[in-house]
Amino acid sequence: MVATGACSFAWPGTPPAPIASATNAAAQTDAHSFAALELKADGFRNHRARSFNRPAEHLLIDHAQLLTLTAPEPTVIVGGLRVLGANHDQSTHGVLTSRLETLTTISS
Q1: Percent helix, strand and coil across the chain, each rounded to 5?
Q2: Tens digits of residue pLDDT in 66-103
């Protein structure tokens, strides 16, 4: 019998296994299998692993080409991400505004 709030009910059969919590997540996670998902490079966030010997700008162009973006589109994406604070290590490199975390347009 399980009671939650104003109602109670009987669970038919065996209850499901508990979801991993912060205390037991490390024990339940196979770190080796997740290593393949580790971010190696992201040109849009100005991040690359030390093992990469290609410049970050090459990785940005490669990523933009895979997304079939035109030349102005990655420029807007990079500028927007940097203003929103998504730059690697919260760096302010490339942030050309005093209005952080605000996306605006230039009006003439």
Answers
A1: 35, 10, 55
A2: 889 998 898 888 888 888 888 777 777 778 888 888 88
